[in-house]
Amino acid sequence: MSKLTLGAYPHMLGFEQLERLLERSAKSGNEGYPPYNIEQTSENSYRITLAVAGFGEDDLAITVEDRQLVIRGRQSDDSNGRVFLHRGIAARQFQRMFVLADGVEVGEAIMENGLLHVDLTRAMPETVVQTISISKG
Q1: Relative to the CA of 25, which of 16, 18, 62, 116 has its CA 20 to 30 Å away?
Q2: Is-cis flag, bond preceding 125, omega within 30?
Q3: What is the 8-class DSSP label of residue 8?
């Protein structure tokens, strides 16, 4: 089976960057941790919720890099001088990436009961009709 690319459609011009974003997103290493939800909160807004129990606000970083929302978590190792008889809660780091469409803006981020909520809004583009004049060559 051959790979289908956007370049296979000659009437779709300028979508090469979108194809690169999709390939990079597929290779981003988004494993199953931490679990997350994506919900549509209105016609033009969304909320991503990540289960980040054990992480504080200072352990998390949220950035937008090249049309990707990147959420990183890194806990400091506080086990110095502590003796664990059983350690089932691992302090592990993570990185979650979400590709953002043109016009999607990241709003506020809220920590609540071990959940990180990140709100997104999509600006509706104006419909523009442009008439191109034809000149004789």
Answers
A1: 116
A2: no
A3: G
Does residue 62 come out as left (phi exceeding 0), alpha (psi in the -120 to 50 range) or beta? beta
Whole-structure pTM value: 0.72
Q: Radius of gyration of the chain from Cα atoms?
A: 21
Domains and CATH numbers, the chain: 9-122 (2.60.40.790)
Ramachandran angles phi, psi of 47, nearest 5°: -140, 130
Q: Average pLDDT of the chain?
A: 85
Distances (CA, A) of 30 to 27, 47, 72, 73: 8, 18, 11, 13
pLDDT at 69 over 80: yes
Q: Which of 105, 96, 88, 9 is nearest to 60 (CA)?
A: 96
* Token output for 96: 């979650």
Strands 60-65 and 45-51: unpaired
Residue 125 structure tokens: 């583009």
From residue 15, how far is each of 5, 18, 61 by CA, in Å? Answer: 10, 5, 30
